[in-house]
Amino acid sequence: MAKPKLKQHHIDQDWCKGCGICVEFCPKKVLELNDSDKVVAARPKDCICCKLCELRCPDLAIEIETE
Amino acid sequence: MAIKDYLRERFFPHIWCPGCGHGTVLNGLLRAVEQLGMSRNEIVMVSGIGCSARISGYIDFHTLHTIHGRALAFATGVKMSRPELNLIVPMGDGDALAIGGNHFIHAARRNIDITAIVMNNRIYGMTGGQFSPLSGPDITATTAPFSSIDPSFDVVELSKAAGATFVARTTTYHVKQITDYIKQAILHEGFAVVEILSQCPTHFGRKNKEGSAVDMMKRYKEVTTPIGSKAKQENPDLIERGIFVQKERPEYCKEYEKMVERAMKGR
Predict the structure, then answer these.
(1) Is B4 exposed, middle or buried (0-12, 13-18, 19+ CB in 10 A)?
(2) Cβ-based contacts of A20 with chain B (< 8 Å)
(3) ipTM over 0.90
(4) For the segment B217-256, what is each residue's pLDDT rounded down to a tens digit?
(5) Which domains are present in chain B?
(6) Which end of chain A is more exposed for a tag (fewer CB within 10 A), N or C?
(7) Mutation for testing the A interface, residue in B27, B51, B173, B182 having most A CBs under 10 Å
């Protein structure tokens, strides 16, 4: 199976509550909390599309779109 | 179907606190339903009262938000009248085993085809952090300021003893297991219990100095181990994860149908 390639992180800023679960458990440390405690994809180039952030997010606020 | 198609998006962002494990359970549950390719119309979700019970408001299945501890009783009624539907009953630890303890053991005894999900955060979150029968000893809660002395139930042992034919346990850290076990529980014919340890950073975490939601999830990784692992033999305090029971026994609705057929013979 070919490696999935990242197209985009879809992050719903209204749904995100800034708990930091995705930031902590991302194996590649792609995500960060911004000044208003919302998640942003700070290093999208490092993303390996494991989708662990999407699966763990308690607020259903992240979606990883792959090609 | 994308998982958001199963949501009632107008109620989002949801009411649960930042980092609440119940959101992760909702996430895993939706993925299980999506992977099974089920339609919204073939599932009935029945919930009782509590933080966990709010889940039925967010999902666009047939949903019933009923009274405290009685979700399984309502679900039994629905299943008996419409046995072709799939029943999912998400409950909190107090809802399932304190207020609804009797309904729980009898649903397990009858082996009625219902999927019970126990979202165990070991505290009554919605009402302000009172200790529950799943809290266990040496836990601080608003109703146990000098720590609790009550031993806790073991959901897995209790379900096994009461007669459940599918029993599994996992945590919110092990998200892929949540989806996997819920999928198997839905497909299982008979009473299926999935216990999911779920963090409550607001009440349980704060009162017991367990840190943030992230710290609590890391703890789940440390204090649990797969069934029968070597680590468990070395450290019996570890909590086992996995599928504990998966067996067949006559299902209640099927037996009821047979009884009706017998009674109606010749008429």
Answers:
(1) middle
(2) 19, 212-214
(3) yes
(4) 999 999 999 999 999 999 999 999 999 999 999 999 999 9
(5) 3-263 (3.40.50.970)
(6) N
(7) B27
